[in-house]
## 1
Amino acid sequence: MKIGLFSDTFYPQINGVANSVLILKENLEMFGHEVYVFTTTDPKASNNEKNVYRMPSIPFASARRLGMFYHPRLVRFIKSLELDIIHTHTEFSLGIFGRAMARKFHIPLLHTYHTIYEDYTHYIVKFRMLDFIAKNTARKISANFCNSVDRVIVPTEKVRDLLFVYNVERPIFVVPTGIELNKFANVNKKSATVQNLRADLEIEADDQVLLYIGRISEEKNIAELLLSLKCYLAENASVKFVLVGDGPERNNLEELTKQLGIDKQTLFIGERPWDEIGIYYQLGDVFISASQSETQGLTYIEALASALPIVAKADRCLDGVLQNDVNGYVFYGTEDFVQSIDRILDSESKKERLSLGAIQSVERYSATYFAQAIEAMYEGLLDEHKKLYHVS
């Protein structure tokens, strides 16, 4: 098949959507398909990308970019490709362009709904009194786009049920995004690389590390973690909280750690290259998160693949992922958050058991399984399309 993937974000940008599109492209190519990515320009992008076509774009809403909605030269090029399938990964510029191409050239169109936009309206609306209007607008944009495609793909049942609430009427299929499990499983905590990294970050040999990897932004609810850890870190001098990532809330949260008196034990180490991120998971003893905005939470899967037990705030995206006392613990408030961390860090045997449970629980999230599921959807939709238009 010839497949067109349309996304406003793509490697080398570091986020769940960019990673998902990259993994899908690479694995579909391994299956023998021709895959073309249409995305935004990025100053960090390589000049030697294979079948990646970038439209002029500008920075928008923090780290994202907004591309042109139409590009005549690319229209002619897309026509010449004779694509079999178009798969959009955004409801905005490149998604609108991809949908237009599908309609213009009568190409079957699938769409993956990656982001719950009503959780991100604070980037656009600075006045809380207008937030209700912004959230309602986000719901309508999401529903209108999803209702304009042939099939919708979502990563979890949480998102599927949300789209039902939005009145999406198109067929919705749950396909969890996969990851390259080997990228995380093949790193050893005791390797020289990891030990040198700990030394560079001034993490002592006997220190235990609570780890967060992801965007440092309001919707990730990191402030709740810091407030909950105030007393715990004060009572446990050998515990460090390491945050890997960057974002608009970093300065505010660094200031909060000073106010709470935990700045010496809280390390904000910034964004790290995606190709190296597997090493950073090996810094941790427990992966922690209080985010309520995830559609799937790929960092949870990556942490589990890295043999890290998880302590995360209850959220439907964790259904089937986080299993209490098997690969971690769900928490609801400060008391059970701290108790869950204590259970793991105070017992080496429990931590080892949960680490083994973590590894065993992620096998179904392999990149290969993910790409095979998407490939089957392409084939099914293409068969329907051929029958509908009497194409041989």
Note: The mean pLDDT is 91.
## 2
Amino acid sequence: MNPLPKTPFTFFINPQYQATQAYDPKRQALLSATALAQAQAVITSWAGYRVTPLHTLPELAAAAGLAAIHYKDEGSRFGLGSFKALGGAYAVARLLCRVLGQRLGRSISPAELLDDAALRNACADITVTCATDGNHGRSVAWGAQMMGCRCVIYIHATVSDGRKQAIERYGAQVLRTAGNYDDSVQQADHEARAKGWFVISDTSYPGYMDIPRDVMQGYQLMVHEAVSALAQWPTHVFVQAGVGGFAAAVCAYFWERSAAQRPVIVVVEPERADCLLQSARAGAVVAVKGELDTLMAGLACGEVSLLAWEVLATGANVFCTITDQAAVDAMRRLASPVGGDPAIVAGESAVAGLAAALLLAQDPGASAAVGLGPGSRVLLFGSEGDTDPALYQQLVGRSAAKVLHDEVAR
């Protein structure tokens, strides 16, 4: 039995990949083990921190002809439903420390923001903002609420009401804009400049690098947790991408620790929002225009983060695109596992990596091209749970609660 129904996909072997290139000081200034240790100290001190599960899926691996599949499930992260909790909130903390430090003329630590009443009062005069498809905005709003600053979030035309309401629950003002995600990014930047707000974005562009770097550094904690739980490194990592910050954080983690022995990194995008694949083909950053219409809302991005491209341009082995149907099929496969594999609740943006891995594994030409086979150990990052519960139930046919109830009963 095929592990996933066959649907169209595209893969592109990156001709710029550098197998022996060292993780040089330029990239260490972007993402590093030292900066990860700083992020880890802050994030693990927050109330509710828990290491998220790393599921082993032996039945699915056997069906795909692979040695192992490991799935890092970020659906329970801080109760926010996605890995984004690690990035946006950490960047808010770092931003507030810098701003208040400049105003007060002294160094301020993230811990002080939570413990010092006077600092929390000072935070109330600061407004952070961003554009989001849902999960990043929820993290920024949560971080702002935790640290006492104001928050305004911009969402674009196709972001669901469920995701809008989820952000509002953390006290943020949510404003809907016309156009796509990249249009909302520009709107947030314009309003911030006009009103003296601070943009907490997960995408970087000329003149705006420090905060996206903090966001990406927060993401690496998830990678560190996963690797710490594995007996040996994976041979392949399939990682989904929007602007590329998440994928770059994953790629950089392995690259820094062993340039020679890092796994094959496969970056996966929706077929209608493939700015990274198009950039790889062009050998330079390329923007994808249009509506970017995909169910995978968290990946519906048309412009590459420049910082992410610093890593992925020569650090990623393969770029791949999948259809919306492949994502839905993967969601259903995780919700209704075969044999002893656990049932997993995964949102539509969480499963792009899994879908690509299974599709390539059952295609002889593709699997040979990327080296997938009986000895392959695949690591996946399930980046969200049912962050839009109504859409999840519509796509899977059961609610997340029913999926987990059925898992207990079987």
Note: Residues 210-229 form the longest helix (20 residues).
## 3
Amino acid sequence: MAALLLLGFSSGLPLFLTSKTLQAWMTVEGVNLGSIGLFSLVGLPYSLKFIWSPLLDRFVPPFLGRRRGWLVLTQGALLLAIAAMALQQPRQALQFLAINALLIAFFSATQDIAADAYRTDVLEEREMGAGAAVFVLGYRIALLATGALALILADQIPWPTVYLLMALLMTVGLLSSFWAPEPSEQERPPESLSDAVILPFAEFFQRSGFMRAVFILVFIVLYKLGDALVNNMSTPFLLKTGFTQADIGWIQGGMGLVATIVGTLAGGAILSKLGINRSLWVFGALQAVSNLAYFVLAQVGKDYSFLVLTINIENFCAGLGTAAFVAFLMSLCNQRFSATQYALLSSLMAVSRDILVAPAGGLAQATGWPLFFLLSIVAAIPGLLLLPVFAPWTPRPAPTPRPGLDD
């Protein structure tokens, strides 16, 4: 659990540096709102990481084993790529900023492949709820560092220096990867690259059944769409409402972190009682309803008390939902192909976070903030409507895997 906490921190560290925190830097530099919204496309590697994930299942680095070896390689590359952001100038050379951010997203997505596979392999079934909660807790602490701390520092020192300091935090990941125990191999790795590419998909569809598997994949894309729309534009919204970078750092990052910690740990505890299916129902509904807080804040305007309430509601519900969702994704994976299968599933989740939300800036400009937040609630409904199909409130017995693929 301690290793998962630190690896969760390392996994979460790059995300805001190419999304919310970068949006704040771009907003301060005077980049237009449409370009800021489109910048979510630099997160495309998170959605496409399943393409190269078979390489991490098939090949074992010459040190630290199949999972930790890849973690060290990607974390070293991330340290250098994040540090390179100190050389960028958003107003003068937006295209070079995009290329640098794209490299960070690529190495971050590759780190996620290895970290998610490590977590899936090292946890027993009874530990999945707690393991997911602890990993997400570390992830959220990293978001505090790259969100709250970075924004607070940006009011005192130049943004390039902030990115250099954030790069140094990747040493946490490097040290934790050397220290963490390698999971025992209960399943043999794929014997060829062809097997590593084909068998994970065939095994998943065979085990789940074709139609049920399709519904699962569509659900993963849609489940967090409403939440992703709000997250993509929340920082520009708060800045344009009149809150300072320091306000957002202290309240959204600081107080919000406490709510996220409580929500994440509560989510892991509740999941052990309700089970994964029912947790998806309850936490999904809460995720959607939490967007109403942003709608009211858009009506109220610059009100610090309601900002505190809004941020705490959103972070608490995000902690609940993410703990259940991560445990759900882990439960779908076969250890032999955990890197590829989890990468496929989490890539689909990233489709809503990085691709479907790309027009969010233009949508907010066209509709205004209040209507935009109401539309984000509507966007959450289709995912919830799919739950009865494959995750009924009263779970059916899991299908027995057919022999053949693992023989």
Note: Confidence is low (pLDDT under 50) at residues 398-407.
## 4
Amino acid sequence: MYKKLGSHLLLLVVIVSVIVAYYSWSGVSDPMNAEVEEVRAEVLLVDNSEVRSSGLSHIGYQELEVTLLEGSFAGESVSATNSLVGQSDIENIFKPGDEIIVAVILEEGGIAHVKAVDLYRQDALLLLFGIFVLALLLYAGVVGIKALLSFMFTVLIIWEVLVQRILAGYDPLMTTTLTLVLLSAVIIFLVAGLNRRGATAFIGTICGLCVTLLVTLLFCNRVGLVGMTQPYVNALVFSGYYQLDIREIFYSAIILGASGACMDIAMDIAASMDEVKLKKPEITAWELVQSGFNVGRHVIGTMATTLLLAYSGGYLTLLMIFQVKEPSIMRMLNLKIVAAEIMRTLVGSIGLVLVAPITALVGGLIISGYFTKRVRLLSSGRQERIASESRVNHKI
């Protein structure tokens, strides 16, 4: 067991090293912006005389004195500006001692201007990720390593394939569907293995995605949603991507959001049925299906609520505004952003409800060995016919 764990851990380290080397050597910076360096800096002094504040919103600019911590001019103290236009969701008010990211604009080999970008949060996020990895490895062992591999593969595929192909003008819905089929196959078979359990979970997941896609296509037009409720969609369009089909990108986001829950339920049911079969080999296919149904009912009972809580968490402040303003129920339900989130929740929930019985039925046929038995029976019957014909021919 420890040898297997060590080999998988070595594979994980190699893959992480390859990814880090790729992004380090290929150069993630845009060659068009070769005259700009983004580096860490420490804030020494702050001048807020040009800042006008109202609550949490700030307009104006901060004059900062910072020390560059890396890059071509590491160790130098320079002046920087932090522009504020009242967008508190993306802007920061810096104070002495903050570690921030600054954009150093170069001109003829020297520093022309320094602009504050954001707080440096990377170390804390990496620490949090490290805790997640450690907890996963301590509890799940080899399966935890496989889960991490699938996690990294998913991030790479979404970033390097899905996002880039949609930006390049490929059909968003088709691209997302094919990407999810690929991701489902890699994740499920990597974690579960190439066996009956993996095959059951994969087929169940694909069926759930098909149901989600069908419901999305049938109802999104009726609800009248064109996708403009998505975060940063206006910034994307006005960045020059006028040709993008925002409606289909919205549909793709719904399917992408529901795919993880569909995969989770399919794997839960397939793993449970496989465990039942392992503990009770003589169980019939129908009894195994009934066990899958029972597991599915309990899983769905919490998973649908999980989707609701996940989407509600992203719009908690909007719900608070509704409490403050007290609009009518009709107005709330028909508000574009609310209708979009209701659509996400209901479409995902329909996919979850249907993926459970489908996975249970598929598992009853695959995990019980029904197909294998049928093939053996057909094969043995064919062999008996050949032997019988051979005996008849011998007598003749």
Note: Strands lie at 36-47, 51-54, 57-68, 77-85, 99-107, 110-119.
